[in-house]
Amino acid sequence: MSTYKIFVTEExxxxxxxxxxxxxxxxxxxxxxxxxxxxxxxxxxxCTLLNEVLSQRVPEVPKGEKPSKKKAPNPHTxxxxxxxxxxxxxxxxxxxxSLGFPNSIFTDEGITYPTFE
Length: 117
Fold this sequence. Notes:
By secondary structure, this protein is mainly beta.
């Protein structure tokens, strides 16, 4: 199992985290993730895997319809729900510079998503 050195903002230190650690954090909260994109630019993204947000924002597959076939996940990337883009995005875990958990997230529409502890 691979570990990734990620700076956790609230703790003020770099930690060795596994993919499963990051998934668990995102299932429990909304996070601000700073990472380097494939083109070398830095990106800051407010994202989550929190069911309370996903159930409001991600449409369910209607009964009788099958979801598209999923390919095997890359163990070094993570698909997350990007709050600002209102859609799914992914990033490489080895490109993450920091991971933070702010008290609230503000979008262009002024919507606040409280974080859950």
